[in-house]
Amino acid sequence: MGNVNLVMKDFGLDLGFTKTLISGKDFIILEADNKNKVRKDIDLAKKKGVLVIVNVKDEDTLRYLIEKTKVDIILGIEKINPKDNVHFVRGGLDQIVCKLAVKHEKIIGFSFYDILKSKPGFERAKLLNRIRFNLKLCKKFGVKIYFGNFSKSAMQMRAPKELRAILKVLNCTKNALEI
Hints:
- The chain is an alpha/beta fold and 179 residues long.
- The protein is built from seven helices and five strands.
- The chain has a five-stranded parallel sheet.
- Helix 4 (95-103) links the parallel strand 3 (73-75) and strand 4.
- The radius of gyration is 16 Å and the shape is globular.
- The mean pLDDT is 87.
């Protein structure tokens, strides 16, 4: 495991990143299946001093994480609702959640790995549209955002220049690559 982490760090530096964070060492990604369990896991991770990122599954858990936990970054908001409405995009964020995120100083995260692993065609277009919608809401209400690789292997990593290009396509002018 140590060699894999070293390869990822070296590859990140080769791509042009100033800092590469390694899962388990620098940060932890939790799945938000059970509110009580995820709260205990967040508290445990905070005691270790690592960055806590939670992949959210539903709107109730999203609001709970924003209001009542010490989570640093919330991921996967665009995948909460399986279907869009006929007249509007259901990206998972709304003005109330955005205002709460600003009030509680939470960061909304977007994963390039999710875009990369999504099925090309309609599924990827739907995901990109939801990300664009959520970025627009975050910009409007002043929510801090983070757009990262979150890749599982070195070959899935992309250079900061490529991430900035995708952000430009998504109409995001904020610098979302810095934590």
